């Protein structure tokens, strides 16, 4: 035996607690059995899988199962995951380690686990029907192999993949280099990008959708439920980003030029590091970015603007510029509470929902979030990197909003639309 069922229940209970406990995730690497050979990653809103040593082999135990998941307060769903969460817990080990991973299937259909990007014996690659028999409901399979590489990797089913991925079955598999890292990092964040067709008013993702998704997530959470990334000024920060969604995601970080330093192919030689401000993480890829933290509250988000929204209608008539005076009152006669929206743009959407305008049950408003200066009008794949001078090493608590030095905030200089003499393109 490795972990008892009780251990897994405890671990997943802790993860559930973390999911509702706000910005501080209590079940992260710090709580796992420590391995002094590396600095653990911090799985955003997630946790690290405990392990034990058995005859020189590092043993883990994954349980594929149905779970209740919260994307953010007000959006709950029946999903599938591992050990009580989606994504499943992060597996961490060191290049050269031999690992044994038990996979127990508590789903009602068969599954397998594919170790995405890992160099391993063919029979351990996890493609059901090709490399191994499927793991039937109730069965436990053991995967065992030696880690031949380092880098950021993932795991996911390779059985009824469309459905099982759509329901959230995925996780991170981080392999630290045996020889350590020539350029060490102080904070090491990791998350997986995903999309979900949780249609308004429903409680289970729809696996048949290919394009028009409702929720876009970092580690199965949407803004404003995604934890902030916290760092101290001057610290070197790495963010490992994987993508098991149905879209490519250009992930953009404000405030710095970061360097792309690695991928599924491990941490690249420094000669290959490249300065960027946006890193497109293709489907099935991982990208590592690194930077030196500078003080401020810096947005970190996918640059596909629909991917920073929550649920929305896709097939509506375009209301912008349409004079709808009187329409609201007319429609309210047959649809009490109706509010016209969008004549001058969509920003008023958040004002409406903040004022109590209800959408369908179990459905988040398209835009959400309050900042120190007003509405953030964001959802989905958006969070904030919070860098302060006085954060203690290893402290991941949300420090609140940044207070900019006096005189360094953009400010109003006029309320006259005809202000100044701006150059305009000649007719
Ligand atoms: Cu995106």
Radius of gyration: 23 Å
What would you give as the CATH superfamily of the domain at 5-180?
Cupredoxins -  blue copper proteins
Mean of residue pLDDT? 91
Q: How much of the polypeptide forms β-strand, as a percent range?
A: 25-35%
What name does CATH use for the topology of the domain at 5-180? Immunoglobulin-like
Number of strands: 24
Q: Which ranges are low-confidence, i.e. pLDDT below 50, for 5 or more consecutive residues? A: 1-26
Distance between the termini: 78 Å
Bound molecules: copper (II) ion
What structural class is derived from the secondary structure elements? mainly beta
Report the helical percentage.
Answer: under 10%
Q: Give me the CATH architecture of the domain at 5-180, please.
A: Sandwich
Short overview:
This protein has helices at 5-20, 161-166, 327-334, 348-354; strands at 42-43, 52-54, 57-72, 75-82, 91-94, 98-105, 114-116, 140-146, 151-156, 171-176, 187-196, 215-218, 229-232, 236-243, 249-253, 258-263, 266-267, 274-276, 278-281, 286-292, 296-302, 368-371, 374-378, 382-388. The chain is mainly β and 427 residues long.
């Amino acid at each position: 035996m490795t972990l008892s069922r009780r251990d897994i229940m405890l671990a997943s209970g802790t993860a559930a607690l973390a999911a509702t406990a706000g910005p501080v995730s209590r079940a992260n690497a710090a709580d796992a059995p420590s391995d002094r050979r590396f600095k653990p990653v911090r799985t955003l809103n997630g946790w690290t899988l405990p392990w034990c040593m058995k005859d020189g082999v590092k043993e883990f135990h994954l349980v594929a199962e149905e779970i209740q998941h919260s994307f953010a307060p007000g959006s709950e769903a029946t999903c599938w995951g591992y050990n009580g969460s989606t994504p499943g817990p992060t597996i961490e080990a060191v290049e050269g380690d031999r690992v044994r991973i038990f996979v127990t299937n508590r789903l009602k259909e068969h599954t397998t686990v594919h170790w995405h990007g890992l160099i391993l014996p063919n029979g351990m690659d996890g493609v059901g029907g090709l490399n191994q028999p499927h793991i039937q409901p109730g069965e436990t399979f053991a995967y065992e192999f030696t880690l031949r590489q380092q880098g950021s990797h993932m795991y996911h089913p390779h059985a009824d993949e469309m459905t099982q991925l759509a329901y959230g079955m995925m996780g991170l598999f981080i392999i630290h280099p045996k020889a350590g890292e020539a350029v060490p990092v102080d904070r090491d964040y990791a998350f997986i990008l995903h999309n979900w067709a949780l249609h308004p008013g429903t409680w289970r993702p729809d696996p048949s959708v290919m394009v028009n998704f409702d929720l876009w997530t970092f580690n199965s959470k949407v803004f404003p439920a995604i934890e902030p990334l916290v760092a101290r000024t001057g610290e070197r920060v790495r963010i490992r980003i994987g993508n098991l969604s149905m879209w490519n995601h250009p992930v953009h970080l404000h405030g710095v030029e970061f360097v792309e330093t690695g991928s599924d192919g491990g941490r690249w030689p420094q000669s290959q590091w490249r300065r960027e401000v946006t890193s497109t993480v293709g489907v099935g890829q991982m990208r590592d970015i690194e930077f030196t933290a500078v003080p401020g509250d810096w947005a970190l988000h996918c640059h596909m603007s629909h991917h920073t929204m929550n649920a929305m209608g896709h097939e509506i008539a375009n209301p912008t510029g349409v004079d709808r005076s009187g329409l609201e009152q007319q429609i309210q006669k047959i649809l009490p509470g109706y509010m016209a929206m969008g004549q001058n743009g969509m920003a008023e959407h958040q004002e409406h929902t903040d004022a109590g305008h209800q959408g369908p049950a179990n459905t988040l408003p398209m835009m959400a979030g309050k900042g120190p200066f007003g509405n953030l009008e964001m959802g989905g794949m958006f969070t904030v990197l919070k860098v302060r001078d006085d954060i203690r090493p290893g402290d991941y608590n949300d420090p609140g909003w940044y207070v900019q030095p006096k005189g360094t905030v953009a400010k109003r200089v006029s309320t006259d639309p005809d202000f100044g003499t701006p150059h305009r393109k000649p007719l």
